[in-house]
Specification:
Rossmann fold, alpha/beta, about 30% helix, 5-stranded parallel beta sheet
Length: about 300
């Protein structure tokens, strides 16, 4: 197979010998918005991420395989691929561990008031705070029970939390105390101490955390978004952030988060630049997933 690999796969170089040993031919494009290094008619497989945002997928008539380096796929023309029988793979399971660690760490940072302690340390102030909150015993609601949501469930449960998942339909999974249909979200939100958003961005999930649902959250609840910014009505969240316990936010719409957003300055909010996926185990996991998928596709 003739494969176009882009710089979105940062660790590609060390895997190229293994790919060639499978019998594949390779062309490399460092920046996905640059001109193609080969005719589009030559390409049968793509390993990249946002290539089709710059080079229309329709211009690759022989394309039969696409592997992206991200877990989210809302930026990929999946309908076109389904219609044309193009095999499609994501980086499922690659980023679940660091994202779940980020979710737990963010909640603990707020519960343990680490921002205030950090400020005191910088000023050499020795002052106790007896208002810290325990994570143990809290109810954690996880929207989306895929790889990331499951990794979150395993870690929150290890802290002694009651973990409820919301998915398309009810089912059993050992990482969750229960998985309920997402249609029960409104009834679940008032009793959740933490709500973690781990849903893919689709027409159905866009804006699922709107003003009405944010108002259903209890005043001590923490909202964690590690999925996509479009899952939350950001304007509504900015208006209501002081009505809940706080938020741990890694994704926004738009990105970067505008400097004018009040979320930057709220004491009860953690803002990070779409960075929760980062981890020192990603290289090994991503290379492994891509090579395994190539072997399976043949």
């Amino acid at each position: 197979m003739n494969i176009l690999i882009t710089g979105a796969w940062q660790y590609a170089e060390e895997a190229l010998p293994a790919i060639r040993a499978m019998g594949h031919e390779i062309a490399f494009l460092k920046r996905e918005d640059d001109a193609l290094p080969c005719p589009a008619t030559w390409v049968e497989g793509v390993i990249g991420n946002h290539l089709f945002s710059h080079h229309p997928i329709e211009s690759f008539p022989k394309l039969r395989y696409v592997q992206i380096t991200s877990a989210g796929f809302d930026h990929v023309p999946t309908a076109y691929m389904r219609a044309h029988g193009i095999a499609f793979r994501t980086a499922k399971d690659v980023y679940s561990i660091p994202m779940a660690e980020y979710a737990v760490g963010g909640v603990l940072w707020l519960y343990k008031r680490m921002r205030a302690f950090d400020a005191k340390q910088r000023s050499a102030i020795w002052e106790k705070d007896r208002s810290l909150i325990e994570l143990c015993g809290k109810t954690v609601l996880i929207l989306g029970c895929g790889s990331v949501g499951t990794a979150c469930a395993e870690r929150f449960r290890a802290f002694g939390c009651r973990v409820i998942g919301l998915a398309t339909k009810a089912r059993e999974h050992k990482a969750f105390h229960a998985i309920r249909p997402i249609g029960e979200l409104d009834g679940m939100l008032p009793n959740a101490d933490v709500a973690v958003l781990a849903l893919p961005l689709t027409e159905e999930t866009r804006g699922i955390m709107d003003a009405r649902r944010l108002d259903l959250m209890n005043r001590h609840a923490i909202l964690v978004n590690i999925s996509r910014g479009g899952i939350v009505d950001q304007n509504a969240l900015e208006e209501r952030i002081d009505n809940i316990g706080g938020a741990v936010l890694d994704v926004f719409e738009p990105e970067p988060l505008p400097e004018s957003s009040p979320l930057w300055t709220r004491e009860n909010v953690i803002v990070t630049p779409h960075n929760s996926f980062a981890g020192d185990g990603n290289r090994e996991r991503l290379n492994g997933v891509i090579l395994r998928n190539l072997k399976e596709i043949g």
